[in-house]
Amino acid sequence: MRLVKLLVRPDASSTKLGWSTYAQMTTPEGQHLASNPDHKNKSENIMSAENKVLIVGGGIGGLCAAIALRRKGVAVDLVELKAEWTVYGVGIIQQSNVVREMAKLGVLDGYLDAAYAFEDVTINTTSGQQLARIPGQRLAGPEYPANVGISRLALHKVLSETAIELGTQVRLGLSVETLNEDADGVNVQFTDGTQGRYSLVVGADGLFSKVRGLLFGDKYQPRFTGQSVWRYNFPRTAEIDHLANYMGPAGNAGLVPLADNLMYMFVTSHEPNNPWMDKSVLATEMRKRLSGFEGLIGELREQITDGEQVVYKPLEVVFVDEPWYRGRVLLIGDAAHATTPHLGQGAGMAIEDAVVLSEELTAGGSLEQQLQRFMARRFERCKYIAESSVLAGDKEIAHDREFDRIGLVKQMLARTAEPI
């Protein structure tokens, strides 16, 4: 028997699982968002113990795992440490392999309604001269787009509402405190004093994963890469109907369409000492990082005036270089393989994890065999994305003019288009 303890802040107690009103994705700590009690399991759940999976973390990976498992008829509880289920309000690039997985999750129509569809990616000089236009592949089917840009708020709304509608029981403002595993299941003590028993615990709790600490101690810690990324929303201009990348003197910038009237800019920068940035200086500092750019980026630079709207994030990575599970506890997404945004695939790998996990958990065999198959399909693919993304950032820091960024992007698109 294995007993491990996780130290987190205490939260208000909730005595038992139950229903409450689902309104604005926020509840008092430790309480519930309602799932749909009328939703019936569509297939037999072959898992043992209490025939239920616990997902720790309500971000993109955790929500997609909940949706995928509920589609397969697996009972799911999801806990999220934040009492207010919020995400930061910029956008995200989702490429053709992600659109394919969204189709498998059964959320494609609502997802596309909330997104901006586009086909191509361009790579441009600092002044805006086009170096390459890379066409996308319509992996979800000829009637669906190759790529989309979507605001994180819109994506969260689509995924959270779908997960709840399918019957996921969601609780906010708490996490796991202890995991006590035996041969048939895992007894979980939550930080609000409640308990549960599960066939499998899935740690989808991000870069600073508590579940990863339970499994591996301090062996795998986030590492700062030397770069940060800056993001800012703008009204969309007519020429940004695709993902436009700009190769800068010290970092790369880009413009991503999110809706008919919205786009966002990003720029990476070398920040060797990982400085803390007060919001009062963010607008000025972001403009400085864009000082070498001309053309549209240069024009937009002068419109960056509100530090409250700048999203600044140091780029940190972690990769668990061994099986992502021990016994009945598994890591997915950033908890196992957090990387940088240089190839736009971080969230995509988490979404793929979720779909593959649901497929393997319902494909027969013992849990050990199911998780081994999951790892066989995920490990090398995620490692390639993690290492290639970090490489791209390292080459930016080194000002390596010989680095073939266009070739790397083309290679990545070919690799991610392959069946998983």
UniProtKB/TrEMBL annotation:
InterPro entries: FAD-bd, FAD-dep_Monooxygenase_BioMet, FAD/NAD-bd_sf. The keyword Oxidoreductase applies. One of its GO terms (molecular function) is monooxygenase activity. Keywords: Monooxygenase, Oxidoreductase. The keyword Oxidoreductase applies. Transmembrane segments: none annotated. SUPFAM superfamilies: FAD/NAD(P)-binding domain (SSF51905). Pfam families: FAD_binding_3. Residues 52-363 form the FAD-binding domain. NCBIfam families: PRK06847.1 (NF005313). This is 2-polyprenyl-6-methoxyphenol hydroxylase.
